[in-house]
Design goal:
Rossmann fold; five-stranded mixed β-sheet; 2 domains; alpha/beta; Immunoglobulin-like
Length: about 260
């Protein structure tokens, strides 16, 4: 993979704005509570975020420096892709550092971030612009695993889904580690776990050239994606999504949409 120019600094997008709306649906509250209870405490050091992109479309690599749960700004860090350094950053007061990057070829690459106080790893997935992507809300995934489809049947349906589509998990920032643990414990397909659940996240994916074939999640999740994906699926009643009964039903509806073999 040829590497683009390196850029030193913190130039980049601001994080997604937190929603001021309250009163989340009860299933979502349950899932968020479990995610927070099972999330490993953050040690001093650096956090790095998975990324999804398409070739020749610039985007921002992102890291966050912290001391325990508190942000730590003014820290110098470096980004690495498959063992090769691609740039340096100085984190801002909010602890975040961004580096503009352009991938040249498709594939899965190992991301690393290094600072004087630690190192972190993540995954960079670069796909063809024509590859259909299904974005799945991890809170909905956890909720259904806890209350309904707990066994091999659900895991098998999701693995079959990942064989036909590029499956991407989307989690709230505080639940990212717990989401990764859930994926491994349930033997679900290992895929990138992106953070955020607002319209901004879907907008960024579209700007990167990602074809969002469908989204799967809560009513709020599918509503946020309504202008960026032609299909939404939810276990909840929603004006912006088709109702699904179980994971097999979701798999069948996705295949009936015509783009899956």
């Amino acid at each position: 993979m040829s590497l683009p120019y390196n850029r030193i600094g913190r130039t980049g997008p601001s994080g997604p704005r937190a929603s001021r709306r309250s009163g989340a649906p009860r299933p979502l509250v349950v899932a968020l509570t479990v995610l927070l209870l099972h999330a490993a405490p953050a040690a001093a050091g650096v956090s790095l975020f998975d990324q999804l992109a398409t070739p020749d479309r610039p985007f921002f690599l992102k890291l966050r420096t912290h001391r325990g749960p508190l942000v730590e700004g003014g820290v110098r860090g470096t980004f690495w892709v498959d063992g090769q350094m691609v740039g340096k950053v100085l984190t801002g007061a909010d602890g975040y550092g961004y580096l503009k990057f352009t991938a040249r070829t498709t594939g899965t690459f190992k991301l690393s971030a290094r600072t004087p106080s630690g190192e972190a790893q993540a995954r960079l997935r670069v796909i063809s612009p024509s590859q259909p992507v299904v974005v799945m809300e991890t809170e909905t995934l956890l909720w259904k695993m806890l209350t309904g489809d707990r066994g091999e049947r659900a895991s098998r349906a999701i693995r079959q889904m990942a064989a036909s589509f590029e499956l991407v998990y989307l989690s709230r920032p505080m639940g990212r580690r717990a989401a990764r643990q859930l994926v491994r414990e349930r033997e679900l397909p290992e895929r990138v776990i992106l953070t955020g659940n607002s319209r901004r996240q879907f907008e960024q994916l579209v700007k990167r050239g990602v074809l969002i074939f469908a989204v799967v999640g809560s009513a709020r999740f599918t509503a946020a994606a309504r202008n960026y994906s032609p299909r939404g699926y939810s276990f909840e009643k929603s004006p912006h999504a088709r109702r699904i009964a179980n994971w097999e039903d979701l798999l069948n509806q996705l295949k009936q949409a015509g783009d899956a073999p």
